[in-house]
Every structure is written in C-alpha cells, then in structure tokens.
Amino acid sequence: MPVLTKDQIQMRDPFVLPHETDGTYYLYGSTDADIWKAKGIGFDAYHSKDLVNWEGPFPAFRPTPTFWADLNYWAPEVHPYRGRYYMFATFKADGVCRGTQILVSDNPLGPFVPHSEEPVTPRDWECLDGTLFIDDEGVPWIIFCHEWVQIKNGTVCALRLSPELDRAIGEPVVLFSAHDAAWVDPVHSNKHGTGYVTDGPFAYRCDNGELLLLWSSFRQGRYAQATARSTSGSILGPWVHDPKPLFDSDGGHGMIFRTFAGDLLLALHTPNSTPDERPIFIPLQESDGRLSV
C-alpha cells in the first residue's frame, strides 16, 4: 500500500478520527476525482501514526448495484458510538434530493454499509454535510445544512436521531441562516442564481464549556471557515456569529481534533478548486472559549 503525504492526497471535506486504541489517525473525505458531475465511486480512507505519512487509499465505502444514489458522494465523517463506527455522508441521485445517510462498520476502515434505510435528513429538502452531536443528556442529533440552491439563504439545522442512529425523530430546527453572519457574501450561479451558502457544520465544546459550531461560507469570493457560539450552551442556541472568519484564504469545511499529544488542530481543505484541493492541519489556540489560528 502506498505511503503518501497530504500534498499527494486530493481530498475535500477532510475528517480525522484519532483512534486511541491503536494509536492511529484515520483520515476520511470526499475522495472521488470529480465530485461534481461524475458518477460516485465511493469514499477512500487513509491511516497514519504521525499525521505526516499516510497509508492508503483503502476503500472505506463502495456502493452496491442497488444503492439508491450515484451522484455527489460528499463529506464522510466517522464517529465512534456504542462500540461501532458510524459514517455520516451526503449522497444524491437524479430527481432525488441530496441528503445525509448513516452507514456503519465494525472497523474504522470499513467496509461501511447503509445503517439508515434512507437519508435521515428531510427527503423533500436539498441537504448536505450532516454531522453527529451528542448533547449533555446523551441524546444524538444530526446537524446539517439546508442548501442554498433550494432556499437561497442556506441554513444550519439540527434534528434529533433515534438512540440507534437509524432514523430521525421529530422535526428539524433551524439554528441560523448564512445571512445572519455579517461576514458572509453572496455567491452567484448561472443555474441557481444568487444566494448565501452554509457548508460543513461541526460542533466543538471548549474547555470552559462553551459550545461552538464551525461552518463555512464565502467571503469576497473565497471559501472561508468561521465559528458561531451558542449563548445557552445548548445545540438549540440561540447562536451568535464571530465577526470574522477563522480562516479565509480559500479553504474550509473544517473540523477540530486533538492529537495524541494534546495539541488542537483544525482540519480543512484548500484551495477550494478541483482537482487542486488538499487536506491541511492548522494549529489552534483556545482561550476562554475563543479559537485562533
């Protein structure tokens, strides 16, 4: 199996799982060469002991001939939960709304197979980038984006999941919209017109207990990574937005993880253009609920 550096791995939406049991980091992301128009191939994964040298790719997910989706295989995240590994990933088919489906495996490298019968996001909504959040009562939620291509002003939403992570419970709650953040600029598309983007939510609990939500949009024509914070400490907010992005050099869709040595890192992809996107890890400082790079 080849050993690669991050510069050799084309990937969008990187997600790192530090696995303490075997002292290994697992890296997932949108790994199809053309995630926009070509038929979906699946998701590849890599593993490393040092975050520098990555072994792979390993085929973490490949669709069966009867799998419902064949487009837009995006943004896989893998979360340990009750002794198994659950992949939250976005899929789409012609004439079917994009949505996040939950897959499962007994191994961080897969193979992952469908766990929910269909996407757990609303079937008549264009949705993407679902992530898992467990609240203080142990209740699982999916946090996801209702996409701007359908509603113009994209939103970030939360939806309760069953304890088994196989279905949604209740109705989605809108946490905030893209236009709520002063730093966000509109995007323009020949197909979809003008709108405001929400991408890549990821929840992070600070050392002081404050709850942050990473998310991405566009500023001055470039992809950017920002944070919002819950004034109640609950996933239901209300949410206020930090005035400036955390990173605005044409990169985003980030997540935060700690190394085995305790260092805090922000993983995101940059630049935001295919096929040049690569995963990068940026050291973070946390002070009194505030993050800085």
TrEMBL record:
Metabolic or biological pathway, per its Swiss-Prot or TrEMBL entry: Glycan metabolism; L-arabinan degradation
Gene3D superfamilies: Glycosyl hydrolase domain, family 43 (2.115.10.20)
Keywords: Glycosidase, Hydrolase
GO molecular-function term, one example from the UniProt record: hydrolase activity, hydrolyzing O-glycosyl compounds
Residues marked Important for catalytic activity, responsible for pKa modulation of the active site Glu and correct orientation of both the proton donor and substrate (site): D129
Family: Belongs to the glycosyl hydrolase 43 family.
Listed name of the protein: Glycosyl hydrolase family 43
Lineage of producing organism: Bacteria, Bacillati, Bacillota, Bacilli, Bacillales
